[in-house]
TrEMBL record:
Database matches in Pfam families: Glyoxalase
Domain spans labelled VOC: 3-120
SUPFAM superfamilies the UniProt entry points to: Glyoxalase/Bleomycin resistance protein/Dihydroxybiphenyl dioxygenase
Protein name as catalogued: Catechol 2,3-dioxygenase
Amino acid sequence: MNSPNLIILYVKDPAESAGFYRSLLGREPVAEAPNFVAFALDGGFTLGLWRLSKVAPQPSATGSRAEIAFMVPGENGVSTLYEDWRKRQLPIAQDLTDMDFGPTFVVLDPDGHRLRVCEPDK
């Protein structure tokens, strides 16, 4: 059976977005081209950043309809990362709060993609 292994975000400027994700992920891209940058992620996934103007076929809609979630284990792991990202002045879309699934918050990347941080399911 085939399994998904690539998440692609459409971005205005792959180089700008690469700088954001380089700092956020603490790693270097595995591929860089003028219109596409890729980061290898743990677990066999790759994050791709594709220049929106070069996507074919062009997407039919825009806006935040999905999130990339970072599950952070450990007691106070979510709140610790919240304080770190807040100090880095990342744009916060949702402050640290408790929801049905536990503590969580959301930041935005340079293109407005939603990055949620939460705890793993117990």
